[in-house]
Design goal:
This protein is an alpha/beta fold. The protein has two domains: 3-129, Oxidized Rhodanese, domain 1, CATH 3.40.250; 135-341, Rossmann fold (3-Layer(aba) Sandwich), CATH 3.40.50. It is 54% helix and 13% strand. The protein has 17 helices and twelve strands. The strands form three sheets. The chain has a five-stranded parallel sheet. Strands 7-8-6-11-12 form a five-stranded parallel sheet. It has a two-stranded antiparallel ribbon with strand order 9-10. The radius of gyration is 25 Å and the shape is elongated.
């Protein structure tokens, strides 16, 4: 008989054993445990049929309908499971750790594959993961005006052995109206949360965790309330870099993109920039003066970021002056600052 295991056990074992998600394709596409393989017992339409049967005629009738649907698929399920199994083991889950996962686990065990079921299913994974985000004790939030090189500096901090979560990397978005340029399509919000949770579970909550200061949304993704509420109360190390250096960085980042995409981005924040500024930015874009475009748009982003920073209590913001746009050098400065002031 298959054994049910906790989310924590499931997560640790998933590093070496394949996960099989038996929910419907629609459920899987909306959000799944990172690395999981989809072997749906029912298609989207079939799940709807079984659900309707359950509501109208009860559990027994729904089970019989389900068996009728699944019967012809059993061999395919068994063959796929053999290909996915590692050391003759598999991890299996459905939505709540109920009949779907138990049925598939029975099949896998029948063909000789040791199968472990996630107790409470995907729902338990989500609940446990969010509870872990809420337990964050030692966050260090890195802030700074647009173009300060926060993300690149954080990645260098990670290279130097610190625990770092790259929220923008997980979201495939840099946060601003220009943030989608050069990025992969964003995941669903549920998948964004799952990917974040999966990285988070690998961290030591007793040690500092570095993140970038973000607004609640990153493009179409939203930072879970459990984490965002803590981030807003956490100390911020604010990178302070000369505006000319920030403009150079932004020009280098966006110079390779088609002007029409940059124009669309400018128009999206047109109301906030103001008509005259929009006109100047578009004229400068047309003449290839990207430094002027960056200067104009920074007026809006700097004001917006400083407004958000002002919502924090003054004693939670530590400004750190930086001479150069040098992420490796700046990473060392921030790490040393944190050790001296935040330990």
């Amino acid at each position: 008989m298959s054994q049910k295991i906790s989310v924590e056990e499931f997560y640790n074992l998933s590093k070496n054993i394949s996960i099989v998600d038996v929910r419907s394709p629609k459920e899987f596409e909306t959000g799944h445990i990172p690395g999981a393989h989809s072997i749906p017992i029912f298609s989207n339409k079939e799940r709807e049929i079984v659900g309707t049967k359950y509501k109208k005629s009860g559990k027994e009738s729904a089970v019989l309908t389900g068996l009728e649907i699944v019967g012809s698929k059993l061999r395919s399920f068994a063959e796929t499971s053999r290909k996915l199994s590692k050391n003759n083991k598999l991890l299996v889950h459905c939505w709540r750790g109920g009949m779907r996962s138990a049925s598939m686990a029975w099949l896998f065990e029948t063909v000789g594959i040791e199968t472990l079921i996630l107790e409470g299913g995907y729902k338990a994974f989500r609940n446990y993961g969010k509870s872990q985000l809420a337990e964050s004790k030692k966050l260090i939030v890195v802030g700074g005006l647009t173009g300060s090189g926060k993300t690149e500096t954080l990645l260098m901090i990670k290279e130097k052995g610190e625990q770092v979560i790259d929220l923008e990397g997980i979201a495939h978005h840099k946060g601003s109206v220009f943030g989608a340029l050069g990025q992969e399509p964003q995941p669903t919000n549920e998948q964004f949360e799952n990917n974040l949770i999966y990285e988070w579970l690998d961290l030591d909550n007793a040690k500092p965790i570095w993140l970038e200061d973000e607004s609640h949304s990153i493009g179409s993704n939203w930072i879970p309330e459990e984490l965002f509420n803590i981030m807003r109360k956490t100390t911020v190390i604010k990178m302070e870099l000369n505006k000319s250096e920030r403009i150079k960085r932004l020009v280098n980042e966006y110079a390779g993109f088609d002007a029409k995409y940059l124009e669309e981005c400018i128009l999206r924040i047109g109301k906030r920039l103001g008509g005259q500024h929009v006109k100047s930015a578009l004229e400068s874009l047309k003449s290839g003066q990207l430094d002027v475009v960056a200067d104009i748009t920074l007026a809006y982003y700097d004001k917006s970021y400083n407004f958000g920073l002002d919502q924090r209590t003054n004693n939670t913001v530590y400004p750190v002056s930086l001479k150069d746009d040098n992420p490796e050098k700046n990473a060392k400065i921030l790490i040393e600052f944190a050790k001296k002031n935040l330990s």
